[in-house]
């Protein structure tokens, strides 16, 4: 018995030592090279693998750790660091060269260099890959197909990945990505795709159809999803259901009795608040829902919230002023039991229970611009924004989206006045630039456009709505010929009765017309509050854009793009 206990104690003392050796990879335990680890998943962070490089003396193992680090850096979207890590490698063995080729293909795909990714993939012998490596191989195939907008090829690649994965977390992540492809796919493509020979594809297509057919009727959608699960009991998505759809089984439709509308209706902000209220009231029309209005400049917002609760109102639209939005987000306890749609967001905005943020945020235009520029095959734009809060928010949002699209940072220039930009253009750009995205007033944009014309630089030009003013003359529009800009879709039909009415009550001031449209859309949003929060992909065609709920329930706006053509403004997108 004593001998047995001694053996057990010795085993307990040895196990941590052996485990440390396995992690460090500094010996060929059991006769296997540490390079074989490349055939497995890399589960640690890039920082861990980089630290191991320094701790390992064996050159082959150092090279392996560099490959593992580079692999994870790509996953962490740190492309330049991954490329730098690969550049340090030399004299690799065949196993290492094989894994390096997969990483290089992945980097090329992330950067949108599809031809280079294809070339790397074609040189790889699939028969030499482990299941984990094959999954990474098809990950690149899926990324390239998505880059080319070949959605079904991307879905088929992800089905291949699913068959190779054994880890439930990775299978869930892959199912979520597969679903994201299908949810954003054209409905005609889904309806016209044949799943012959693939039960997995057939199940995914049936799920997408059930979702699309019932999206505008969320109460029915929940039942449709339950029916799908019953029809496909062995499908991967049945037991690892797409994460964003899981909450739909408990969906409750929006029901409103009373709304508290919080706006600044006195002092300097009166015209802003009253214009938003006019849009809200006009959209409300003859609805039976009661609305009680509170002036946030006359009464502290915390006191208003308490009064709202005392009166039994549980739905709030507003406040508008940033300092009041911050007061609410800093006191989430005040909001318990309330549904709140603020009319602004701040840097402090975060996810809070039943609260959504809506407003005419510059981030919406920046993300829209990044998408449009990327969709036109432009990979090296130059972003020009003012040195201000508007400029910083625009730059940050554009860069975040650009990193997601291209895997690289955007080239951004801040300016204090238009002369800064004209000097940069006239002195020559330091690298080949394909396009400019400019956030400027109409007068500043005129100066910048003249400088571009005088410099004989052939650039595609994009601008934000900041330059779109009712004061723009035919001469201005002629000067801007070819330039594309984003703005709210309300400006698409200037001959409509609604447009003429709003132009009349705002004296044709585009800034006030946007605020009116924002008020009208606030009414639409609060009446679909639960649908927006709980139904992924649910959207509303509003006057300020195609509206949907993004991260932290920030209401995102899909902008309309226009172009100056022969002194006229032409609609390019809906």
Would you mind describing this structure in some detail?
The chain is α/β, with parallel strands linked by helices and 574 residues long. It has helices spanning 2-24, 46-55, 59-75, 79-87, 94-110, 114-122, 131-147, 151-164, 168-183, 187-192, 199-214, 218-231, 236-239, 270-284, 301-310, 322-329, 362-375, 389-406, 418-427, 442-455, 474-479, 497-505, 510-526, 529-534; strands at residues 258-263, 290-295, 315-317, 339-342, 355-357, 381-386, 411-415, 435-438, 460-463, 484-487, 540-541, 546-549, 555-558, 560-565, 568-571. The strands form 3 sheets. A 7-stranded mixed sheet has the order 7-6-8-9-10-14-15, with helices on both faces. The longest helix has 23 residues, at 2-24. Mean pLDDT is 90; it is low at 1-32.
Write the layout of secondary structure elements.
Blueprint: H1 2-24, H2 46-55, H3 59-75, H4 79-87, H5 94-110, H6 114-122, H7 131-147, H8 151-164, H9 168-183, H10 187-192, H11 199-214, H12 218-231, H13 236-239, E1 258-263, H14 270-284, E2 290-295, H15 301-310, E3 315-317, H16 322-329, E4 339-342, E5 355-357, H17 362-375, E6 381-386, H18 389-406, E7 411-415, H19 418-427, E8 435-438, H20 442-455, E9 460-463, H21 474-479, E10 484-487, H22 497-505, H23 510-526, H24 529-534, E11 540-541, E12 546-549, E13 555-558, E14 560-565, E15 568-571
């Amino acid at each position: 018995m004593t001998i047995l206990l001694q053996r057990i104690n010795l085993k307990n003392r040895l196990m941590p030592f052996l485990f440390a050796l396995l992690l460090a990879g500094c010996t060929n335990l059991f006769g296997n090279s540490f390079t074989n680890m490349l055939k497995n998943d890399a589960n640690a962070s890039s920082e861990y693998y980089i630290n191991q490089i320094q701790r390992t003396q064996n050159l082959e193992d150092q090279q392996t750790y560099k490959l593992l680090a580079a692999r994870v850096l790509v996953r962490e979207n740190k492309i330049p660091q991954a490329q730098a890590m690969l550049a340090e490698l030399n004299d690799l063995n065949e196993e290492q060269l094989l894994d390096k080729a997969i990483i290089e293909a992945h980097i090329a795909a992330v950067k949108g260099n599809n031809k280079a990714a294809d070339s790397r993939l074609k040189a790889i012998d699939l028969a030499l890959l482990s299941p984990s490596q094959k999954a990474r191989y098809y990950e690149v195939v899926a990324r390239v197909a998505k880059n080319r907008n070949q959605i079904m090829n991307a879905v088929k690649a992800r089905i291949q990945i699913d068959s190779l994965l054994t880890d439930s977390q990775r299978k869930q992540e892959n199912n979520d990505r597969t679903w994201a492809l299908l949810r954003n796919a054209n409905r005609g493509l889904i309806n016209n795709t044949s799943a012959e020979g693939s039960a997995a594809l057939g199940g995914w297509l049936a799920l997408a159809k059930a979702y699309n057919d019932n999206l505008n009727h969320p109460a029915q959608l929940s039942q449709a999803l339950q029916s799908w699960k019953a029809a496909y009991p062995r499908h991967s998505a049945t037991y690892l259901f797409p994460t964003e759809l899981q909450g739909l089984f408990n969906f409750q439709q929006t029901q409103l009795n009373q709304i508290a509308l919080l706006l600044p209706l006195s002092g300097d902000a009166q015209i802003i608040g009253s214009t938003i209220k006019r849009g809200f009231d006009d959209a409300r029309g003859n609805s039976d829902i009661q609305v009680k209005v509170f002036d946030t400049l006359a009464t502290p917002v915390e006191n208003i919230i308490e009064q709202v609760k005392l009166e039994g109102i549980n739905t709030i639209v507003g406040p508008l002023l940033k300092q009041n939005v911050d007061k609410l987000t800093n006191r989430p306890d005040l909001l318990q039991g309330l549904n709140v749609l603020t009319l602004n967001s701040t840097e402090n905005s975060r996810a809070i229970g039943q609260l959504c943020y809506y407003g005419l945020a510059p981030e919406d235009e920046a993300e829209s611009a990044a998408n449009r520029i990327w969709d036109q095959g432009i990979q090296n734009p130059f972003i020009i924004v003012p040195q201000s809060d508007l400029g910083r928010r625009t730059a940050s949002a554009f860069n975040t989206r650009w990193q997601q699209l291209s895997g690289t940072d955007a080239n951004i220039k801040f300016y204090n006045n238009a002369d800064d930009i004209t000097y940069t253009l006239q002195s020559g750009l330091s690298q080949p630039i394909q396009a400019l995205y400019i956030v400027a007033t109409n007068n500043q944009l005129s100066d910048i456009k003249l400088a571009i014309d005088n410099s004989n630089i052939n650039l595609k030009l994009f601008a934000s709505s900041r330059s779109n003013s009712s004061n723009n003359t035919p001469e201005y529009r002629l000067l801007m010929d070819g330039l594309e800009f984003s703005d709210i879709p309300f400006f698409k039909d200037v001959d409509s009765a609604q447009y003429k009415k709003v132009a009349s009550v705002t004296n044709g001031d585009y800034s006030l017309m946007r605020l009116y449209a924002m008020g009208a859309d606030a009414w639409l949003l609060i009446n679909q509050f639960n649908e927006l929060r709980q139904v992924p992909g649910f959207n509303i065609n509003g006057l300020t854009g195609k509206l949907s709920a993004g991260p932290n329930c920030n209401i995102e706006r899909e902008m309309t793009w226009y172009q100056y053509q022969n002194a006229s403004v032409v609609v390019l997108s809906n």
